[in-house]
Amino acid sequence: IVNSVELQPATITVTGAAGAIAYSLLFRLASGEMLGKNQPINLRLLERTEAMQALQGVVMELQDGAFPLLKNIVVTDDADEAFKDADYTFLVGAKPRSKGQERGDMLKENAAIFKEQGRSIDRVAKSSVLSVVVGNPANTNAMIASYNAPNTPRTSFTAMTRLDHDRALAQISKKVNCQVEDIDRFAIWGNHSSTQYPDLSHATIRGKWAWDLIKDEDWIYNKFIPRVQQRGAEIINARGKSSAASAADAALRHMRDWVLGSNKWVSMGVCSEGWYGITRGVWTSVPVQCFGDGKFGVIRDIPMSKESASRINKSIDELLQEKSMVKDLLPNQTLRGV
Ligand code: NAD
Ligand code: LMR
C-alpha cells in the first residue's frame, strides 16, 4: 500500500546554527524527532557573518546525512531571510557564560540580538509562528523578543526552562529509584537562573505524593533544590563549556510538546498574566499542560505554601531587575493582552 499523502514541509528557523547547541539540535530535527517521521521540514539557519564558513561545514554534514525528511536548507546572516515564513523558531544564537559568571551577566551582550530578531519575526514569519528562546538570559530575552513583535501573540514566545525541569526529574528518579516517566506534577518556577524554584511540593510518583516517598527534607532543601539551581554552573566547571547536547534535547522536547501536546505537567517560561500574584509581563517559568498546535494552559489554582511563594517571589524580583536593565529595548509598553 502506497501512502500518497505528502505533507507540506514545516519551516524551522534555528539561530546560532554554527554553535554547540545547534550542532546537536539540527541533526535530530532533520531526522524527524520533533515533528514525527512523516513530516518533511525546511531548515533556515541564521548565523553571524563571521561564522558563515563554519556553518557551511554544518550544512555539508546535514547533506551527508541524506535525511529523507529534510527538503531544503537556507543559510544566511540576514534575520529577515532566516525567519521568512517560519512555523517554528529556535532562538539559540547568543553568547554563553563562562566559569564564574551568572546568566544575567550576559544581558548586556545578548539582549540586543532579541530586539532585532523579535522585530524580524513579527515582520516575516507566519502569524502562527512558535518561538522558543534558548539564548541566555532566556526569560528576559524572550520578553524582549515579544515586546518587539507587537503583532505576534505574546503566547508565541516562550523561554526554555525544560532543561531545568528534566534535570530535576533525573535527580528525583535517581533518589527514589523510579522511572522518569513515573513522575508528574513537578514544576520549575521563575527565572532560568540560580534563583529558580524547583518545586516538589505537588509532585507525584506513580500517583503517590513524592514528598512522602522521598521522606528526606534535608535532601530536598539542601541537595536537590541547590543542585538543580546550580546544574548549569556545575556543567561549565566540569566541561569548561556550557551544556549543549542536553540543552538541544530540552529544546526539542519543549517544542515537540508545545506542538504535539504533553500528557503531563512541563515547565515553560511564559508571559505572566498575574497568576499566583506574579507580576504581569515578565516571562516566568510555570507548570503548563500543552494541548497541541501551540496551545497551552498554565496550571492554575494549586495551593501555594508560604515557603514556595517566597522562593518564587525572589526569582520574580530578579526578573523585574533584569527587565529594568533592558527597558530601552522594550518599545511597546502595552503588550497585546497583558
Ligand atoms: P555557542 O557559542 O557554541 O554558539 C552560539 C552561536 O550563536 C555562535 O555560533 C554565534 O556565532 C551565534 N550567534 C551569536 N549572535 C548571533 C546572532 N545575532 N544571530 C545569529 N547567530 C548568532 O553557544 P551555545 O553553547 O550553542 O549556547 C547558545 C546560548 O544558549 C548561550 O546563550 C547559552 O548560555 C544558552 N543556553 C541556554 C540554555 C537554557 O537552558 N535555556 C541551556 C544551554 C545554553
Ligand atoms: C544551562 O543551564 O546549562 C545553561 O543555561 C548554560 C548556563 O550558562 O548555565
UniProtKB/TrEMBL annotation:
EC category name: oxidoreductase
Domain of life: Eukaryota
UniProt-listed GO biological process terms: malate metabolic process
Record domain Lactate/malate dehydrogenase N-terminal: where: 12-154
GO molecular function terms listed in the Swiss-Prot or TrEMBL record: L-malate dehydrogenase (NAD+) activity
Keywords assigned by UniProt, alphabetized: NAD, Oxidoreductase
EC number: 1.1.1.37
Family: Belongs to the LDH/MDH superfamily. MDH type 2 family.
Lineage of source species: Eukaryota, Discoba, Heterolobosea, Tetramitia, Eutetramitia
Protein name, UniProt field: malate dehydrogenase
Start and end residues of each Lactate/malate dehydrogenase C-terminal domain: 161-327
